[in-house]
């Protein structure tokens, strides 16, 4: 059977590969809101959210729907206030992406009169739009020929081509994108790329790929899919402990701190102190969360001293429970605050 693209009749092999994928998708493809629209704005929002979050979470927890209700078009997003933007993005993490989306929206408003461009060069020139997102917009919104590689597609292609090098270094990335270009379906870009992604989600899964049910098994070169793709060595995970304060003033208002660092600018959380500042303050609650390569042990302390002994630091202020819950904050802190407020 033909293998692609190294068989003698590579062109026919690639065409048969694409056809097999499309046929399988026609019978098995799932329906998602972003697959039922051609609106580039709605598709773009889904693409940004799905870069970091599973489909089940984006839909099941209502992130996608809520965001589009709050900002139904590019003009609304372009004029979003910081607080409402962060609040709408809350729970998705990587808050810088939300601000970058607003920057993109502003550029689309000023450079393209509020209409998403449909040329690769124009899309890639926008802030926050890389070649994956540009390709996704071309294929899914405009039905134009495009190449795109996300995690699912990279995995499938690495297995189909039996690629034994890391896919996440410069030369591996280049190779995967080359194959994506070669195999790309110029006539049916939308359905082809949806099919390739769906294959990665349902059949060619990271562990235990179901090769027996795979529509492109006869084109696939690997004998050991469970060992692919190869990746570079992961960075070492660093364990960190954070000490947070749970302080309420005489009116019952809660002390919060607004972040000013670039990554989480504008978000609210409990004030953090050095371990030696808290000495033996009792621990009210604790939890663990992960962020990038850090595993954080968050310990929340209650004060031993009177409130009057506290000097507020930059960015700190008191808020009623209702105010606090309406602020945008990282999910681990929201969970802790909700838990402690409900037990007060
Ligand atoms: S045959 Fe197996 S490894 Fe190859 S693409 Fe299909 S599911 Fe993936």
What can you see in these coordinates?
The strands form two sheets. A four-stranded mixed sheet has the order 4-1-6-5. It has a three-stranded antiparallel sheet with strand order 3-2-7. Helix 2 packs across helix 9, helix 10 packs across helix 11 and helix 10 (151-160) packs across helix 12. Strand 5 (283-291) and strand 6 (294-301) form a beta hairpin. With 344 residues, the protein is of the alpha+beta class. The chain has helices spanning 10-28, 40-50, 55-60, 63-70, 74-78, 82-89, 95-112, 120-124, 131-141, 151-160, 170-183, 189-202, 275-278, 321-326, 331-343; strands spanning 238-245, 254-258, 268-269, 272-273, 283-291, 294-301, 316-319. The chain folds into two domains: 10-148 and 170-195, Hypothetical protein, domain 2 (Endonuclease III, domain 1); 238-343, Nucleoside Triphosphate Pyrophosphohydrolase, CATH 3.90.79.10. Iron/sulfur cluster binds next to helix 10. Iron/sulfur cluster is lined by residues 156, 159-160, 203-204, 209, 211, 214, 216-217, 220, 222, 225.
What is the CATH architecture term of the largest domain? Orthogonal Bundle
Poorly predicted tracts of residues: 1-8
| CATH superfamily heading of the largest domain | Hypothetical protein, domain 2
**How many structural domains can be distinguished in the coordinates?**
2
């Amino acid at each position: 059977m033909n293998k692609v693209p190294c068989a003698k009749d590579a062109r026919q092999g690639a065409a048969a590969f694409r056809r097999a994928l499309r046929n399988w998708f026609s019978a098995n493809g799932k329906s998602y809101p972003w697959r039922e629209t051609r609106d580039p704005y709605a598709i773009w929002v889904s693409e940004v959210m799905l870069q970091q979050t599973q489909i089940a979470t984006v839909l099941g927890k209502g992130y996608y729907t809520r965001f589009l209700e709050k900002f139904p078009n590019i003009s609304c997003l372009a004029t979003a206030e910081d607080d409402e933007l962060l609040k709408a993005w809350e729970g998705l993490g990587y808050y810088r992406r939300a601000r970058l989306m607003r920057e993109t929206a502003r550029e689309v408003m000023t450079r393209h009169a509020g209409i998403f461009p449909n040329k690769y060069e124009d899309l890639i020139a926008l802030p926050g739009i890389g070649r994956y997102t540009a390709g996704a917009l071309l294929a899914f919104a405009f039905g134009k020929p495009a190449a795109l590689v996300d995690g699912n597609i990279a995995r499938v292609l690495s297995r189909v081509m039996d690629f034994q090098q890391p896919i996440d270094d410069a030369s591996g990335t280049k190779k995967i994108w080359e194959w994506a270009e070669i195999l790309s379906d110029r006539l049916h870009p939308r359905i082809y790329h949806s099919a390739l992604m769906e294959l990665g989600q349902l059949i060619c899964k990271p562990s235990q790929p179901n090769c027996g049910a795979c529509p492109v098994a006869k084109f696939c070169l690997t004998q050991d899919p469970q060992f692919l793709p190869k990746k570079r060595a992961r960075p070492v995970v660093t364990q960190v402990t954070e000490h947070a304060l749970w302080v309420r003033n005489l009116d019952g208002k809660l002390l919060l701190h607004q972040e000013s660092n670039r990554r989480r600018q504008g978000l609210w959380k409990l004030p953090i102190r050095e371990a030696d500042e808290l000495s033996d303050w009792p621990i009210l609650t604790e939890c663990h969360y992960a962020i990038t390569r850090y595993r954080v042990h968050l310990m929340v302390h209650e004060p031993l001293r009177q409130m009057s002994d506290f000097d507020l630091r930059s960015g700190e202020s008191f808020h009623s429970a209702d105010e606090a819950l309406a602020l945008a904050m990282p999910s681990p802190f929201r969970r802790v605050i909700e838990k402690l407020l409900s037990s007060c």
